[in-house]
From TrEMBL:
Complexes and interactors: Homodimer.
Catalytic center residues: H58 (proton donor/acceptor)
GO molecular function per UniProt: arylformamidase activity
Protein name: Kynurenine formamidase
Lineage summary: Bacteria, Bacillati, Bacillota, Bacilli, Bacillales
Organism field: Ornithinibacillus salinisoli
InterPro entries named in the record: KFase/CYL, KFase_sf, Kynurenine_formamidase_bac
Cofactor note: Binds 2 zinc ions per subunit.
Binding-site residues, Zn(2+) 1: H48, H52, D54, E171
Binding site for Zn(2+) 2: D54, H159, E171
Function: Catalyzes the hydrolysis of N-formyl-L-kynurenine to L-kynurenine, the second step in the kynurenine pathway of tryptophan degradation.
Length: 213
């Protein structure tokens, strides 16, 4: 049996977060010495810190919230492709890969995956990939970047285009240690009724019998 590969960022008090947003923090509220029986922790965080899923409500006030998303999108066969040779990801770039029967697509980009550093610049994901992905049957896009749009984007064009074309968004996965290939993916959101997103523990396991490409 192959081992599961963790592709999530560890949640640490010194991890990067969206500038101006709520950092992650964990602390012990009560120690075992205080309670006499148990240690009890608490955490505070933006839902967009670390590896997370965006719900459409994040960028569309009428959009679905995290509890309304279909769980089967986040569990199942996924393909990892390495697009680190380009700075702009377009349909023409994606056309070079065999994406037949791919429903969940994870992009390993040129961005170094460093959980401690919020990147100033990231590769560009062109909004035109959204209709392309829908046409070939992809309904989940995962990226190893904090966002599918540039940090200074005002219109969030790629978020909106993906949503319009039925493609769900998984962000800030770690893929520097993952080869191209076919995997089983599990990246389930927490059930937080009404929420705009959720941190996830995202893991991959190489699919048995796949020729990896
Ligand atoms: N769209 C980003 C997050 C984002 O834009 C954001 C996250 C936290 C605080 C502010 C944000 N954007 C603009 O102010 C994402 O895809 O998670």
């Amino acid at each position: 049996m192959s081992e599961w590969i963790d592709i999530s960022q560890a949640l640490t008090n010194d991890m990067a977060h969206w500038p101006g947003d709520t950092p992650f923090s964990y602390s012990l509220t009560y120690t075992k010495e205080q309670t006499g029986s148990v240690n009890i922790g608490q955490m505070t965080s933006s839902l967009h810190t670390g590896t997370h899923i965006d719900a459409p409500f994040h960028f569309d006030s009428n959009g679905a919230t995290i509890d309304q998303l279909h769980l089967d999108r986040y569990i199942g066969k996924a393909k990892v492709i390495n697009v680190s040779h380009v700075e702009a990801i377009t349909p023409a770039v994606l056309e070079a890969y065999n994406l037949k029967n791919v429903e969940r697509l994870l992009l390993r980009t040129s961005l170094p995956n460093d959980p401690k550093r919020f990147p100033e610049q990231m590769p560009h994901l062109d909004p035109s990939i959204a209709p392309f992905l829908q046409k070939i049957g992809v309904y989940l896009l995962g990226v190893d970047m904090p966002s599918v749009d540039a940090p200074d984007s005002k219109d969030l064009a790629t978020h909106h285009a993906l949503h319009k074309h039925g493609v769900n968004i998984l962000e800030n996965i770690m893929l520097d240690h993952v080869d191209e290939g076919i995997y089983e993916l599990i990246a389930l959101p927490l059930s937080i009724p009404g929420a705009d997103g959720s941190p996830v523990r995202a893991v991959l396991r190489p699919m048995k019998g796949s020729d990896s490409k």
